[in-house]
Amino acid sequence: MAAATFVQGSCKTMCPPDEYEIRKEHNLVRPFETSFLSAVKCYSRSAAGQSAARHKNIRDLTTLENTVKYLFEQVLDRRKTSLAQLYDFVFDRLRAVRQDLVVQGYLEGFSGLRTVTVAKILEYCVRFYIYFQFRLSHLPASAFSSHLNQNHLDECLSQLLHLYSKIEVKNHDLLHQTSHIEIEALDLLLSKNSAGLHRALQLPSKTKSNTIVRNSIEISISLWLGNFVRANHIARGLPLSLQLAYRAHFSLLRPRVLEVYERGYRSPQGTKFPLEKLRRYLLFDTARQTAEFCVDCGLSLDDTGSSVIFKTGTALKFSTTSQSNNLYDQDFEETLENVRVSHFLYGQSI
Amino acid sequence: MQSSWESRSGTEVSEFLSFNHPHVMSAKLTAEGFEKSVERLVESPLDELVILHLRCLNCVNQQKYLEAYSEQSALVQAFTKLFQTQKEDNWALFIMYVISLDLRMFAIKADKELAKKGADKPGQTLEKAAECLMGLFRVCAADNRSSDEDTKRWGMLYLVNQLFKIYFRINKLHLCKALIRAIDASQFKDHFSLSQQVTYRYYVGRKAIFESDFKSAEKFLTYAFERCHRECRNNKRLILIYLIPVKMLLGHLPTPHLLRKYDLLQFSEVVQAVREGNLRRLNNALLQHDAFFIRCGVYLILEKLKVTTYRNLFKKVTLLMKTHQIPIEAYLEALKFMGVEDIDLDETQCIIANLIFENKIKGYISNSHNKLVISKQNPFPPLAAIMKVCRGKEISVSSFNLFTLGCVDRPNPAASQASGNFAGEAVARQTSTCFSLKNNEVDRKELINRIKNEFLTKLATI
């Protein structure tokens, strides 16, 4: 890979002065950016045919690190507006940070300690996507695109794993300065097919014997065998970031879980299954959400509205309902309210 | 060499260009200035090939595999150009076979060399080799104007097999898809040589396992095993490593004789455990040989055998209870007895619900009475019969289409009601049974004690 195609950034402010001037002129400065000092470079599709002075608009690694810290501590922690609006702003600015990393070649080659810093930044991003995937899941698609968020999460994760493999080959000891254990476990829990499990089983035994990784493997295998109860049970003991990831992934399995219970409990005369019990299995926050989900899938409730009826001859139909991706959980909300966002994102809540 | 070339004797020329042939031992070939001698004796385009081959030989003799690879790669590329110009002719296919094989072999050795030096990307030489071979593949695949006898398309399957070997080694199975499609579309699909077909099906079978398509995997691997020459014991053994777990999943256990014959005793504990419904034994068996199973990539299928083991265990429990409505506690106690830690009624119900969902138990769970009500007729259908019906795709979000009902064949509700298959209906009409459907606490405690005292000991002896 020709190093000549990568630029060495020289910008030492969060926002390149040129850009700030242009944006100010066109009234494109966001409310968060009260002055030049608090302006942050925004994301734009990389323009072709950049001039030689391009490096002035690309932030160097230290600046990028400081930018991310600023976004987390001065914007997210301060919480001056709704979570959705904070997400919008920080999502875009983080995208710009990642873009600056890419054009400088930091995601390709190995650059010693700097690669560790790059890995750290990506780890912060991964936790960012997971945090908001969880907290904004209950919003309608117009307010929060869980699909887009998921795509960026997936991209970030694969870039990170790629970096880890480079670090492992070049300087194995540096790996300990990263959170590779947490990320490997995260990647496994979010994996949509058994390829993730195959990969996890072939990890070096030192990694595999770590409790977090071991539990994540057990959870994945349990899910693979259909043992949702065991998976949910083990997941409760995971560190916070992994729990959020687990729940995000689990919501995709809800239709299957409902199918299994419907099939296992349905009788010709109709079985009444308590919504409260089903709620626990489906990881919904309230019985009402559970009821809504069941009804959307073609099931009916009993007269009291506290049980769903499983009867032979009912046809289940699945479509993305309003509730299927809803991750909202009162207990988690309270926990997250009491944890400083930046702490979570830095990985300190493990 | 020149005369073999002129007489278009593919096999003879290929011998001279292969590293398997004894000529590679001769020191005379790589003496100083051999290039000039070659140019003198051999005509173009053959001379280029010979020179590259000898240069490669030189590198191999000095154990410089990275350089040997480059020479071989240049050889393959030169050959590709040459091959393309040979219209309506395929005698050079034999040459193609040997040089492709050697290319792959040197790539493997070159990667090992790079790994020792702390390479960036493991398997990068193999990836390059794959690209090289794809070039050759395209030449073969594109040759659709020639007659069936002279077409280069006959070389396709050999190359596909070489590419499979590379892709499996560098773990890029998704690249196999396009090749499989190409072979499937070929009219020669069933006319390639048997050994090539066996190799092909072996890899396609392994890929199917990786994608959890066990029915297809069984089909391919069975073909490979049955048609593999009986003297290729090693190959037969390799095929069995994958065929055995797949067949077990589909309800057929291997005989001890088979395992002994092919030196696959790692599986014998697993087989015994599954047959007995002994979870503890299965877990130990998996632990004992986990490195072997993981390395071969069959560990996950063997884990899936837990479901079969649950089914066998629960069948025994049901038989011992001698009734059609079994309290869930019975199964819970059995699981605890088998060493499953931290398990509760919730989890037991979940396991049973899954078995019903997969048609392995015919019945339903009564939530209010916490009992499994089973069909009076064949409540535990033989696994082999079920697997024919159910497409058996496991839980994976990508294969789970949110707009279908999943893989289960739902029994016709009208039919089963008419035939009175469900014991629940019959029992509702009865008033006196050993276990009435009333929730009776005293009966329950007594029952649990009975379970613990009586049948757990019986269970151990079965």
From TrEMBL, chain A:
Domain named SAC3/GANP/THP3 conserved is located at: 14-302
Under what name is this protein listed?
Answer: SAC3/GANP/THP3 conserved domain-containing protein
Which source organism does the UniProt entry give? Daphnia magna
TrEMBL record, chain B:
- Domain PCI stretches: 198-379
One GO MF term, please? Answer: RNA binding
Single Gene Ontology BP term?
transcription elongation by RNA polymerase II
Record gene name: EOG090X06A5
InterPro entries the UniProt entry points to: Csn12-like, PCI_dom, WH-like_DNA-bd_sf
Query: GO CC terms on record?
Result: transcription export complex 2
| Entry protein name | PCI domain-containing protein 2 homolog
**Similarity-based family:** Belongs to the CSN12 family.
Pfam families to which the protein is assigned, alphabetical: PCI
